[in-house]
């Protein structure tokens, strides 16, 4: 779906946001962050290339006039139009795809990944890559590559079904290469992974500088997700090999990388990023938009806000709450936030867990709330139980509202909280419950922590600081880029052990 919105202005600096599963088609922390940048820079022109699920997702944000084109690139909808290549073009693409797969599976051939990827990007622009990957030849090439003597994946005895599955997953993951890439200004990828693909193509073809912001570590989240994915190890080896080499290529080629915390920076340096090209930029909030929340609820209450998703690990939070309720029988747990499409089974699992533990009457799923401040005001203590985060908005918003927090020690959480909240290990219900009980039992300490948390936000994490930093970056990066060209109209570093993910 292609949405045209607003009129371009002569001479305005230009930014193309590259997103996946977020702005402007869904809500959530990264979407809020994108909207803040766009709304805060009305003098700049923005386009958005948004990787989506089916392409039928509606735009859910009110876009200002300086957001012009919004192009939805579906990964799982109808296959892209085009025809398979023929003759010499088919042989060239087949050879490039063989080099691409070899790079994913053979540590000694990883230098073949970039040239193969950019050859495939040109085929995607011509409309031939997706049809080729949906054909039998692509499957046969993979079957031949991973059965070569000496490759570890061969020992797992990959099957034809594995080859069909892995090829299909790669075809979907590579669909963003078919999007018209940015041709001028700055391409700003707001996550790693497949959202970056149009930016890499724009850099390769038109020398458009690529800016990468990672809120969470995309590659780490893929590793976590594929541990329980319903695929055999040969399929995981191919797909995770792609995500790893894509991350490393992105880190090498980006003109600037702006992680949201120092934890992400470690991954980026390990992945080959030049330390001189990394600049930490924290998320910010407007303290006036998140004022002190006011009186606490009379009933001891833990509140949580976010999207209902396995990465938020609500199961650990519910187990911790069960331990809290043994000490404070009247305690309540209120969970605020929507359930993404496809996530209904996880929510049902969490509801079933609360019932199984005997606390269904005290655990409430409130759904989306019109004013997120109400979610923070609803608790004496605000909880964050995630197994992976960047620099979470819900945490600094709750801090700005003057609430004490208990959070898991992931991503940039410790950098955000400092000594104004309690930080516990992830996936540890006992430690989380002990921290919550510690704060619930000490109103004076909660109050002191809440006041210190708001002051910390005002001093270090304001929205104005974030916007001013990115404005200077946007104006600085294109200095040596090519001028705008009117588009033609066309119809080892991050390797993980195999055994840790083979389950």
UniProtKB/TrEMBL annotation:
It comes from the Bacteria. GO terms for molecular function: glycosyltransferase activity. Residues 14-276 form the DUF3492 domain. InterPro entries: DUF3492, PelF-like. This is D-inositol 3-phosphate glycosyltransferase.
């Amino acid at each position: 779906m292609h949405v045209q919105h607003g009129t371009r202005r002569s001479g305005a600096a230009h930014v193309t946001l590259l997103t996946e599963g977020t702005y402007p088609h869904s809500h959530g922390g990264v979407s809020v962050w994108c909207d803040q940048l766009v709304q805060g820079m009305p003098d700049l022109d923005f386009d958005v290339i948004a990787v989506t699920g089916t392409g039928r997702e509606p735009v859910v944000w009110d876009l200002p006039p300086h957001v012009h084109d919004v192009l939805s690139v579906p990964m799982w909808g109808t296959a892209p139009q085009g025809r398979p290549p023929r003759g010499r073009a088919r042989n060239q693409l087949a050879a490039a795809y063989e080099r691409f797969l070899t790079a994913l599976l053979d540590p000694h051939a990883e230098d073949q990944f970039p040239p193969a990827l950019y050859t495939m990007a040109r085929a995607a622009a011509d409309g031939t890559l997706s049809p080729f990957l949906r054909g039998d030849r692509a499957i046969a090439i993979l079957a031949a590559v991973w059965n070569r003597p000496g490759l570890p994946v061969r020992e797992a005895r990959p099957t034809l079904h594995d080859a069909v599955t892995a090829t299909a997953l790669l075809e979907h993951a590579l669909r963003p290469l078919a999007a018209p890439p940015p041709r001028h200004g700055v391409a700003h990828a707001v996550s790693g992974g497949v959202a970056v693909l149009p930016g890499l193509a724009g850099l390769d073809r038109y020398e458009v500088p690529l800016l990468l912001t990672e809120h969470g570590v995309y590659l780490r989240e893929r590793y976590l997700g594929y541990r329980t994915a319903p695929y055999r190890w040969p399929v995981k080896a191919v797909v995770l090999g792609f995500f790893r080499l894509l991350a490393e290529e992105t880190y090498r080629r980006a003109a600037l990388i702006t992680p949201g915390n120092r934890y992400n920076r470690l991954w980026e340096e390990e992945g080959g990023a030049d330390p001189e090209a990394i600049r930490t930029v924290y998320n910010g909030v407007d303290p006036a938009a998140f004022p002190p929340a006011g009186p606490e609820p009379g009933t001891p209450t833990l509140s949580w806000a976010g999207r209902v998703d396995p990465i938020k690990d609500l199961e650990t939070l519910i187990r911790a709450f069960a331990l809290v309720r043994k000490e404070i029988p009247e305690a309540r747990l209120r969970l605020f936030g929507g359930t993404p499409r496809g996530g209904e089974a996880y929510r049902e699992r969490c509801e079933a867990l609360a019932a199984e533990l005997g606390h269904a009457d005290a655990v409430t799923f409130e759904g989306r709330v019109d004013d997120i401040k109400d979610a923070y005001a609803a608790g004496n203590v605000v909880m964050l139980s995630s197994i992976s985060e960047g620099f979470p908005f819900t945490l600094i918003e709750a801090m700005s509202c003057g609430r004490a927090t208990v959070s898991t020690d992931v991503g940039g959480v410790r950098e955000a909280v400092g000594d104004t909240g309690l930080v516990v290990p992830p996936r540890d219900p006992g430690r989380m419950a002990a921290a919550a009980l510690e704060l619930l039992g000490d109103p004076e300490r909660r109050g002191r922590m809440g006041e210190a948390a708001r002051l910390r936000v005002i001093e270090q994490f304001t929205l104005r600081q974030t916007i001013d930093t990115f404005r200077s970056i946007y104006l600085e990066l294109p200095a040596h880029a090519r001028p705008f060209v009117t588009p033609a109209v066309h119809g080892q570093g991050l390797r993980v052990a195999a055994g840790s993910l083979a389950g």
